[in-house]
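Write out the 3D structure for:
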Amino acid sequence: MLLVLVAICTALIVAAGRGSRFGGVLPKQYALLGARPVLSHTLATFQGVPGIDRIRVVIAPGDEAHYRAAAAGFDLALPVLGGPSRQLSVLSGLEALAPEAPDLVAIHDAARPFIRAADIVACLEAATVQGVDGAVLGVPLADTLKRVAANGAISETVPREKLWRAQTPQVFRFAPLLRAHREAAALGATEATALTDDAAVAERAGLRVVMVTSSGDNTKITTAEDLQRASTMETRTAFGFDVHGFAPGAAVMLAGVEIPHVQTLAGHSDADVALHALTDAILGTIGAGDIGLHFPPSDPRWRGASSERFLVHALALLAARGGRVIHLDLTLVCEAPRIGPHREAMIASIARIAGIPRDRVSVKATTTEGLGFTGRREGIAAQAVATVEVPRIWE
């Protein structure tokens, strides 16, 4: 971080595009993602990044009112008016920064609102390494590439080794990038069209640019479908854990299945340690506390109650948020009883309660090799992982 802290970096957010493929009433950078415009989400991320000294935004002429709505609440300088192409818009932004001449400039597409602060910092750090002029966030290609002729026939398979998908931010030392963009602006239309991002402009000028691997989702919103997917559902995962000790009895309840045993499990309800762990995992995915918050052990209503009621309650809270279960994973830790003979019945029970197919339920068992309270056969522990989808809510 030392190199970042001693360098001054300005973020240049490019929001001058028309987004012809988006097809909405507003350009995509001003469309609502949740309750706020896409651009507002992007600005919020950059505002909190260590090493970013200030933010300037490049907009299209005529978008001033849209920009003011999206930038409300941010302490920003006046926007810069862009040009007829992305390259000329970036050049306009760089020229506006020239009087203050920051050490670094981080150029980012306004329509990439999911950028992570850690990735921005990683690019800043990479761009300040001695001998490097710039750093670009990207992802190594995983798909097989085909070159296709005009008639639709495949003409060539392109080796994907060493190929990356370039994203933004793209961070550069300011002075050499400004020179490179000035030179690019003097090119003919055909050659300038081939410069599809700032890294291409830098490469043409002979600058040394390195790639930085993206750590997460940095999708660019290009179409209305992209915005719809971003606005609808997100995947969440949460963990649940529970323990119950043995008491005199003749059976234990595990995952809603009664299993004959020389003891039972002690608890205020039926002490189904498996369903308790699953309940906590479901509650965790929606930030709804734990099982004790909803079913206090001190409440006599739950004495001897079926733990199925607890899991059904958690699932109902999830459904009320518009969510659904994708997968449930359960691990039981005990020396006895043996779980294997009852595994399929437990899977069927959990699937029935959760209303999901059996192949979305996993039940596993292990021991602690004679160690600890489970190894001494004093009780059973359960670990659960719930994976769900819920509507993505943006502040």
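Confidence is low (pLDDT under 50) at residues 1-5.
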